[in-house]
């Protein structure tokens, strides 16, 4: 879709699920009837007030929405430039933005008569949110998680088990999110009758990228209203971290047509965006291809084989990105940058020390970019960053990276 015929960035995707050259529906014949049924149900739900009444009730009374928009005063003073606001989605029940979307998908699954929910998870936050909502509604829950992530996100694995979910460690590839999603898709193809696949990010075949975005857009809708109430105007810059891209799309989407609002997505730069591909910056260091049912930017070799990628953060450790981000990148509506592990760790520590908030490693990447640009901006420049998860799950990873022994002291 050339830029001159885009009349609204909020119009996508087209009827085939494409955002410009990206997205679509690359799935096997077996899945097609299911995907079409899901699309029909979602299209119906979108305009059904009773669906949104149920969502709003649960968002308010179960999740604890709206999440606050918090002026990070000490961080602002420390950096000495732009005024920094944090959208506190880490305060949601289960500790991240993932539950915003899970509620929507599970309400749909119940309407479709599905009794078994499957999910993939990286950092474990989507798995925990899915296990939580399944427990609430008495549904069977199976979560696929890469074996490497099972190890580095152990607290979340235990939480999922406490909540009654079965956690299946996936040992193929590097044992991260990509591999978990492969196995979840395999499960879905073999259990089409009773199973609903609850995808945790704005990836997968149409209608998932648009549907997950729509459920996460509550973040941006609230941020808009809260910023108007606090400052009487829209923010100048939005910043969010990107794994598959759902918290970022959730924040960005309601602002896409506000051309004066600068939009920045932060990918995982790992050990640096280099030829060794020790990063997960799909837009910064990848090129278009097809993975997990959609066309998007991917880390791949010259033969189109998907590369494993790397990040200290399990939630950002994905060699692809949601197709809408690829489109926003190519149309230049949004900018995408990469932040390394080391930079994210510094931001993690600064947020703990200055704001009394232990952030997840994922939004620590976004914060590291805030730290880069805020000092150069004037004091009346408003930054809104999505603090999309809390860091309890990451303390062991951070301790290891900082060479701190967490074993018993005596
Ligand atoms: C706290 C947190 N933030 C961000 C992400 C990345 O996902 P997305 O890009 O879909 O928001 C994850 C994924 O697990 C997460 O747990």
TrEMBL record:
Keywords: Amino-acid biosynthesis, Aromatic amino acid biosynthesis, Lyase, Pyridoxal phosphate, Tryptophan biosynthesis. Pathway: Amino-acid biosynthesis; L-tryptophan biosynthesis; L-tryptophan from chorismate: step 5/5. Its cofactor is pyridoxal 5'-phosphate. GO terms for cellular component: cytoplasm. It holds the Pfam family PALP. The modification N6-(pyridoxal phosphate)lysine is found at residue 98. Belongs to the TrpB family. This is Tryptophan synthase beta chain. It comes from Brevirhabdus pacifica.
